[in-house]
Amino acid sequence: MKKSPILSKIYLLLVMLFLYVPIFVLIVFSFNTTKSHSTMSGFTLDWYVKLFQNELILTSLLNTIIIAVASSIAATILGTAAAVGIHAMKKVPKSIVMNITNIPIINPEIVTGVSLMLLFVFFAARMNFEFGFGTLIIAHITFNVPYVILNIMPKFRQMNPHLYEAALDLGCSPARAFFRVVLPEIMPGVISGLMMSFTFSLDDFIISYFTNGSNAQTLPITIYSMTRRKVSPEINALSTIIFIIVVIVLVSKNIAERKSALKKEVKL
User: Fold this and answer.
1) pTM of the entire structure?
2) Which end of the chain is more exposed for a tag (fewer CB within 10 A), N or C?
3) What percentage of the chain's residues is helix, strand, coil (to nearest 5)?
4) Greatest CA separation for the chain
5) Rounded distance, CA 76 to CA 67, Å?
6) What are the pLDDT digits (tens) for 112-121?
7) In Å, how far from its chain's centre is CA 30?
8) Are 60 and 127 in contact (CB under 8 A)?
């Protein structure tokens, strides 16, 4: 049975409209002269100026970036080490460990958030520490590590299993063989895991909500607190900037991948 190309295009158009029309409406009203979200009264950049004068938003953004960078780097290191260990296991133990590793991915975030909050409360009562940057970073590392492992394991399956042994036979120490031979082979998975961890950490709300402290609020929590009162056009401006940055990063990544693919084709 042949599919109609016209119906396929209409379906694709409807999906794209459903996904992106709300974002474009948000972008348009970020330039509105009034706080109205239904009537465009004029064009202004005042909301962008006020955004960069809002200390609460800027502080929350800085907190979010610090937590995302720290947790994604730590999660990538731990996840890479874990992936190396899992790859070295035999078939049955490896299958069991991978299933256990995948549980946090399919587990509802609210369960993870409440569990981590109770864990931190338990230790806080005995070790005299407060909720804040520390608890947020630990929480973000916890839910990011499985995604790093998930990105790296396929690269191990694609790698020639004898490369590491060949490097040892040629005189490399185990550490040197790993950093010179194995790590370059799995590096695309490591980078993908790092980027995914960073993105999830920036975007996370539920787990951060349960594990944040009064002195360390992330941007999603701050925006949620602001929207409970009234949606300010400053939030529209902030969302527009984030959307543009994401688009630039994605376009740059695609261009870099195409150039890399063309170079490989030329070499071949």
Assistant:
1) 0.82
2) N
3) 80, 0, 20
4) 73
5) 14
6) 999 999 988 8
7) 25
8) no
